[in-house]
Amino acid sequence: MYAIIKTGGKQYTVRKGDVIDVELICSTSESEKEILFNDILMVSVGDVVKIGAPTLNEATVKGELLGEAKGEKLIVYKYKRRKNCHTKKGHRQKFSKVKITSIDI
Length: 105
Fold this sequence. Notes:
Elements: E1 2-7, E2 10-14, E3 19-23, E4 34-37, E5 40-45, E6 48-56, E7 60-70, E8 74-80, E9 85-91, E10 94-104
Antiparallel strand pairs: 1-2, 1-5, 3-10, 4-7, 5-6, 7-10, 8-9
């Protein structure tokens, strides 16, 4: 059983027990660890495949928020030749780790 979900402008293929890295999800309190994904594009159970147009309204995917982390550092370097003008900047994107607990149809 697997599902394709959409969150943070990206699509992820998930199964029960998977740990995925998604765009940063802001939780209002520490007790709010349960995350509900409503944008389900496709669900596959055995030989049965359900495809949404564009989403499935009856399907939900539940996850547990494990924490936040930072990605690897990306270096952005700009320069203009023969002008003695250059800038170097670094960026680390924040993301949330989510463990998929159940896929409901």
